[in-house]
Amino acid sequence: MERLAPDFFDMPTLLLAERLLGKIFVMDAGHGNTPLKGRIVETEAYLAGEDEASHAWRGRTHRNRAMFGPPGTLYVYFSYGCHYLANIVSEPEGSAGAVLLRAMEPVEGIDEMRRRRGTDDLLSLMSGPGKLTQALGIGPEHYAESLVGSRCWIEDAPELSSAKIGTSPRIGISRSAGLPWRKFVIGSPHVSKTRTASRPKKGLIVLES
Fold it and tell me: Where are the domains of the chain?
């Protein structure tokens, strides 16, 4: 498949959260090994400004500096003292925005993912932001890594129709919790939480509680 070009990531964060769905995240396993691939099925958008759940809400710091970098940069951070989370930087350089990779469908290198995750359950391999980084081997060494480099990249795939994309509030946050900035592939068993979907006003797909 063709790799996404740098200008693909140069778009508003909320739009990127949708456009990433269905694309293939690739991690080079090195030493001629089979690359690890996952199809993105769930994302969350985070912005500066009024988004209090964003790491950039209070401005630029040493920890969040990658969020202000070029679009298509990885912003990786340690969460709750137990796992790493991976975000794709969006917005023009100097403005903070990022899309959290929440869940993927395993595509290639599945045996290695099972070894890393310590489970044979295919649906559990990448069905959460900490699970997918463990399966792919994403860690602090990938902080500020470019997704147009040689270690990791994203392959193109057909764009999903709006009827296949669901929207809901983000998960596991206490601030700005009502913002409908979580996007997911409707019907995918690999999303982090499977709920039923309905169609409200203005044609948006949201999740029922």
Answer: 6-158
